[in-house]
What does this fold into?
Amino acid sequence: DEQFDKLKQLETKYGWKSPRNICIDAPNFYIPKALDILKRARQEFNDAVIMVGNIASGDMCLKLLDDADIIKCGIGSGSACLTRKQTGCGVPMVSLVMECADIAHSVNGHICADGGIIDIGDICKAFCLNSDFVMIGGMFAGTDEAEGEVIEKHYATNELIDDKPVVQIKKFKQYYGMSSEYANNKFAGGMCNYKTSEGRELLIPYTGALDKILQDIRGGIASCCTYIGASKIKYMPKCATLIK
It folds into this structure.
């Protein structure tokens, strides 16, 4: 109820007829309560574009598209995620994205590939596999726009000045999985005795302003299209060949 109240407050604050874009994010969207929340969101905000996730199978993708517009696919693939190690649950992203994209596009739905983006080339591969959207976390976590303070660490080098080692300063920002112990302590009042941490805390190198990364992403996707002969992003799956 609290989250729905926040959405209604946004309507009042910005004068919207209804919220335009809603993302309902759960690590496991197979839980009945998550399905109930989706149905309520569709009933109360019928005109909104609703994205939900995460899932790891085609059958659930089809089921969720009864009420959602975009399905977030991927369990355990994120750089800060330990779900596969701790639970054994998850599906390799290439297989999952291909399966869910075929199902979603057959009923005019869309998917978002969520997890496993290490390099810009991984974004290109996600589009080539027929994903409509790509979720990116760690690549943006070191930017000025990301939450958190810049952390400085000092490292002694092999270089000496006046017989004293030269100290190198490196800057980082904190990045953590939302099922990690840190996130549970921060947002959920601590770890319950029946839970395990399914995420890790990482220090991501500080990368400055977001604009440079976005420019590199645009350039990488454009160059990929040139290599494979695709005039638009939507044509990338038709121009790419998957080789195992």
About this structure: The two ends are 47 Å apart (CA to CA). The mean pLDDT is 88.
